[in-house]
Amino acid sequence: MWTERIRSRAVGALPPEKLLPDRQPAYVSSWIYVFGVATIAALLVVVGSGVILGLKGPAWWHESGVGKFFNSIHLWAVEVFFFAMVVHLWGKFFMGAWRGGRAWIWVTGAIVFLVSIGTAFTGYLSQQNFDSQWIASEGKDGLNSVGIGAFFNVADFGQMYTWHVILLPVAVVALVVGHVLLVRKHGVVPPYAAKVARAASAKEPA
Amino acid sequence: MSPRQPNPAPLESADWDGPYIRYDLVKEFVVALVVVTVLIVLLTVLFSSPDDRPVTIQQWSRTDPAGFVSTAVTELDGSSEVATYGPPYNHTPGTGQKIGPLNLQSAAGVHFPIDTARDFVLNPLGSIPGNAPLAGALKTYQAAPAAQQKSWTDAYTKGLDSATFTGGVPQLPPGDYGPVAPMMASLAGMAQTGGLDGALLNANQFYQTNYTKPLLFLSGGDYFESRAEEQHLLGEQWGMMNETGSYPGQVWLWLYTFWYQVAPFDTSENADAQVWALMMLLSLAFICIPVIPGLRSLPRHLGVHRLIWRDHYRRVEGNS
Amino acid sequence: MREMAGRLGPLRGGLAAPAVFNLNSPAHYVHWHFFQMSVANVILIGLMIAVFILALVIPFPKREIEK
Asked: Around Cβ B74, how many Cβ atoms within 10 Å?
């Protein structure tokens, strides 16, 4: 039965104690580990402030003090989001976090980084101010040069706004969910072999 | 292996069989959310956000009428940057950036057809009602052969060098400008009332979100670019990373804008396409680090991990 | 002289809460050979590197190993 098969595969990959563990390997003891969750927290604030901006529409953040406030929240949340994500990425690179069958964790993380850049780009285009005019004017040349501009028109506010508020955020959130579930499934990557282990293996006869 | 004794060479794909600590993930998430939210609100209260008003064609024509009219003439005679851009706006031979032999720009074709003479000058002027002299000038211009039209626009372009502007309307020295002189005077007047902004946006339908035409018209002139230059937003100013005012910008675009500053891209006619291709390649390499020999084993040699996992290595190597 | 008020645009309606620090003034830039970057961006990148290093070196609160 399909339902049974899917359920047993899901529960097999992620039993409750793996999905929401109450313990971690003892090597998870560095401040570098908080930047993943900090990135997700910032993403929540980005989405939350974005939802509020969307409730009143594009003119609101130019016309009202409260709208401007949430516009600022959204901008700084994006800066904090990228800040945390880059520190997280540096940490994960230096940990070689793709080891032990965790390649897809790295891949989903790298892709969500790139998709986030695209999401931010459409956001800057949706501001409806001088900055968005200039970015559209310059961005069109880059995209037109490789034919993408024929289908993705940075001067079309309606298209850019739609990509920004729904299409790309759905992609970002889906990738983040997949990324985190993979981390829960595989566990946090263990440390590289210690020097004593490498010395011991070097002494072993061939 | 006792649970208190960490494995010095753990099997990386297996579940950890060494020591564990109690770890409250949900509490960690809530704390992170509170800390991050407080930080964001603090940044908002301290710095707010930029919101420079957009440039309009009305503003351009009032602030720099000479620049506006000289750009408008090039849109009319088809010599402007937009008129000769190529796909996706028009078919212009020899256009389209290349990556080696590949011309993806041309391959994509024309999807937003723009005839600058028709769309930026003739149609907007044609929408002005009750102006018989203007209607006559338009009729004369459109009925004239191409060579005659070029003669008028060339003369007008030359005459602009000595033009004066009264109330934003160009006054040229005597010359054979034909109907181009009254057309340009009317276009300047229309622009200064804001009518041209509206006409370019709402040419075909009431509801519109596509700003391609007014934006392209703006980008053809120096005024728009000079405003960007003041804010250090130009390509050669690493502008892609910058924001208006003193705000931080899109810092994550540093590598994308870097290539435009160095050879051979800084002088290449195909810089946009080449940089795009290079960045796609580097992005692919970034995604595929786990399978690239050399790169995937670099962290082990760099040794930063020994700092991250120093407690673990102390336990393992201290007990050996 | 650019039209500052027109450029920024007053907020129409609703209360405008000005920021503590006004960053709408022209930026300062760091120039080094062909490299140029706004001070704000330099600060951001510097902070990123500093926070990364701090995250590596600042000790994490010790937790008791589970028996």
From this structure: 20
